[in-house]
Amino acid sequence: MKGIKHLFGIAGMSREQINYLIDLGDSFTEVNRRSIKKAPTLRGKTIINLFFENSTRTRTSFEIAGKRLSGDVINISASTSATSKGETLLDTARTLAAMQPHVLVIRHSLAGTCEFLAEHLENCAIVNAGDGAHEHPTQILTDLLTLKQPWGSPEGKVITMVGDIAHSRVARSHLLAAKIMGYQMRIVAPKTLLPSQVERYGCEVFHDFDEALPGSDAIYMLRVQTERLTDNCCFPSIREYHEAYGLNMKRLKSAGSDCLVMHPGPMNRGVEITSDVADSVQSRVLAQVDMGVAVRMAVLAALCGGGDEA
Ligand code: NCD
Questions:
Q1: What DSSP string runs through 123-177?
Q2: What's the mean pLDDT in 62-72?
């Protein structure tokens, strides 16, 4: 794919590359609507999913994406890999690379894992499926494909992102993508869940959720990343967090009936989002999951050189 050997993050990508993957993903949505969901694009290609952190959507969608394009997909999780027997990450990755896969899809709690491994593995493409609080590029491509149908281009739109910005790789990748694609990010979070100098991304920062609602084209809710919190002093209680930063129907109404609701999942109903909002007609949460498969088909196809024939 046009100058991309690996997919480490949104950082360093061009608008053309992002649009190319979104459009290719869009073309694959048709395969996902067929009764026989198979295309030959990845025939003879081997994809290994190597996940050291929990995942439902991302891992499953990479697996389904690879299989729908006729690739051979192998899943390895941390608990079943030899790292749990003391092997280093690099040795595990080298071992898998020696089996000649075309793509290694990696999720790890350490930022920069993919770049590090790519320096040592020459024969396969590496896709970042989430590295710590750093980047999660395929989630952002998923979101932009989800928004393509109602919006066309995201340019000039306002996405209001609410919650644990500090520990969210989804937030970081969106802040980078907003600059490249020309949409505006509003960030809403308590001070304890904001990264330092977040304004350098060119976003607007709010501490009062209600002030950020008018003019939002989409409200993007985030889960508090409890697994990445070093202490639990970020907010007084779940109830108070929900009061100040939870998306409920009253808030959604004040944002307007055209405002879309997004969440990368997993949702914590009753914490960052109420059930009626999560299940409302304005919610795009399941559409995001659907588009996640199509985008991962696009990423795998592009990295295996099959994007153009697709
Ligand atoms: C996100 C992640 O893993 O960063 N989830 C996902 O990939 N669908 C967000 C989260 O875990 O809160």
A1: SSEEEEEEETTTB-HHHHHHHHHHHHHHHS--TT-EEEEES--TT-HHHHHHHHH
A2: 98
